[in-house]
């Protein structure tokens, strides 16, 4: 049986992996790998705006998952001594 904590950890790992890949893609684009032209043909490999939006979305999702994983329920019992 998989616990909620394990599910959150798996999801967080997935988000972080995808985020790292998007950041590598962004870096490649910024270093000139977005498009190229050979003779009269042009090829665009990726959309920098779409990659930036996905990075932001994944960073937000990462923060949400981190917060969910750190929530703890505590019960306080007051005692009159």
SSE arrangement, N to C: HEEH
Report the strand count: 2
Which word captures the global form?
rod-shaped
Q: State the helix count.
A: 2
Structural class: mainly alpha
Distance between the termini: 42 Å
Largest sheet: 2 strands, antiparallel
Strand order of the largest sheet: 1-2
| Share of β-strand residues | 5-15%
What's the Cα radius of gyration? 21 Å
Low-confidence stretches: none
Give the helix level as a range of percent: 55-70%
- Average pLDDT: 85
What does this structure look like?
The chain has a domain at 15-31 and 43-67. It is 65% helix and 10% strand. It is built from two helices and two strands, in the order αββα. The chain has helices at residues 4-33, 48-70; strands at 35-38, 41-44. It has a two-stranded antiparallel ribbon with strand order 1-2. It is rod-shaped and about 85 Å long.
């Amino acid at each position: 049986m998989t616990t909620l904590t394990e599910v959150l950890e798996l999801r967080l790992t997935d988000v972080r992996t995808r985020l790292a890949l998007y950041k590598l893609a962004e870096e490649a684009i910024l270093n000139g790998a977005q498009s190229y032209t050979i003779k009269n043909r042009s090829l665009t490999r990726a959309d920098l705006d779409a990659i930036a939006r996905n990075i932001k979305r994944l960073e937000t999702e990462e923060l949400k998952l981190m917060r969910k994983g750190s929530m703890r329920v505590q019960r306080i019992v007051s005692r009159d001594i």
